[in-house]
Amino acid sequence: MPDSEKNRNFAKNVFGMETQKLNKETSDKISFISYIIPKFADEYKMGTQDAYFYLKKYGGLKFLMTHWWALHVDNPFWAVRHLYDVCYENGGER
User: Fold this and answer.
1) Domain of residue 64, residue span
2) Model pTM?
3) Confidence class for position 22, pLDDT limits 50, 70, 90
4) Is there a contact between 26 and 32 (Cβ–Cβ < 8 Å)?
């Protein structure tokens, strides 16, 4: 039995789920989100975890998950600015 099949069977038995490869769009989405949140944190002088919770609290994360495709082709400065604007419109004050 090949190693990849053993790993798949192990995950299925231990976690009760099948392991799957991520499709390209999901992989790109994860890459962009994991890139832009630290950029947002740096721009507004906060830790990455604080930035994540701030974006989540004020709707920036939902906006990011919905519109990542348009944001990822924009300049990172403007992508961060759009996230700030969304949060500000939803009560964010930083």
Assistant:
1) 22-89
2) 0.74
3) confident
4) no
